[in-house]
Amino acid sequence: MSGEASKVTGDLGEQNAKKFFEFLGWKSLSATSLDFECVLEAHKTPTGKDKKAHGIDFVYSYECPYSKVEKVILVDSKALKWEDRGENHGEGKTKNEVSGFFNDLHKKLNCAKISKDLKEKLGIGSRSDYIGLIFYFCHDQFFDKVQLVKALEDVSVPRDAFTSTSFVLDNSRINLLYSMFKKIESLKLQIGKGAEHSFCYFDLERFPMDGSLHNYLTLQSMFSNFIFVKISNNDGASTNHVFYFGAYSPDAIKMFASALYKFQIYLMDNLHFYPVSMKSALGNMHAIEQYFSNGFLKIGDKAIKIECSDIDNIDFRLK
N or C: where does the chain have the smaller number of CB atoms within 10 Å of the terminal CB? Predict the structure, then answer.
């Protein structure tokens, strides 16, 4: 791929990433990509020379609703064309590529934690946790989730005093979350002017019974099977929504019902339930509807009205 074509491909990844992160509600610490000083002598360039700087596409932050610690997210945006991988779908290329992405991000996180340069540029406080996120976006129809998972299983990142948690957002999860975001926007339009949404985080030891409400989605919640959303209007009236990202199984729904009881969500009168799936959202919806007895979930002497709705899965690829 020529240098100019490679740049265009990278720009497509950044455009998609920016659009996606707008929905997350995270605080942007850098309007554009930035470089910061490399402060560890162990970091070398591919030619063996001392590395002078690290580049990062985006930096975001949010306050953890549980610990109240600032989470600083370093995002590397990767735009790829799967059709370029040649015969046998390029399994070796994918493995080497993913390993390289993780090791590169690992070095950036190591330096970011102790870089005065980065902290001064972005106004990051001393009590912050650093997390890595690879926005792994394939903008053609050949993306192979199974191959990517195999490559991730083989990733080996050095474990040292600087090791941080890192996540990968791929096409499948990006599309599911983006479908949820668009559904939330649609529901807010139905309610009218002044409608706001909040994501709910439940912890009986720290929060009131109705949970802690925030206008951002935490990184860990992005990979959860259940995401709770409350939509309110100017008058204070609200509706409760649950987006379910797993395949249907009785055990999964029983776990959901158990969570409702444990966190006292059963005090709510109704829940709008949206099964979100890349394969058979409608099939999930019908199976889940059958599990709920005539549209109600009975917990003790409380019956919560459950309204299941289909959701349109949106193709997030740029055409």
Answer: C
pLDDT, tens digit, for every residue of 108-143? 888 888 888 888 888 888 788 999 999 888 877 777
- In sequence order, the β-bridge partners of residue 227 are 243
Q: Is it the case that residue 209 has pLDDT exceeding 60?
A: no
Cβ(296)–Cβ(266) under 8 Å? no
Q: Rounded mean pLDDT of 230-258?
A: 77
Task: For the beta carbon of residue 2, count every other beta carbon within 10 angstroms.
Answer: 7
C-alpha dist (Å) from residue 77 to 8, 15, 58, 80, 269: 13, 9, 8, 10, 42
AA letter at 137:
F
Tell me the average pLDDT across 240-254: 76
Six-digit token pair at 302?
């409380």
Q: Is residue 289 helix, strand or coil?
A: helix
User: How far apart are alpha carbons 124 and 103 in whole angstroms?
Assistant: 24
Sheet holding 196-201, edge to edge: 212-214, 196-201, 226-232, 238-244, 270-275, 302-308, 296-299
Q: Compute φ and ψ for 151, nearest 5 degrees.
A: -65, -40
Among residues 212, 285, 211, the alpha carbon closest in space to that of 244 is found at: 285
Would you state the structure tokens that stand for residue 229, as one six-digit string?
Answer: 């959303």
Averaged over 183-205, what is the pLDDT? Answer: 84
Question: What mean pLDDT is reported for the chain?
Answer: 76
120 or 261: which carries more pLDDT confidence? 120
Alpha-carbon Rg of the chain, whole angstroms?
A: 21
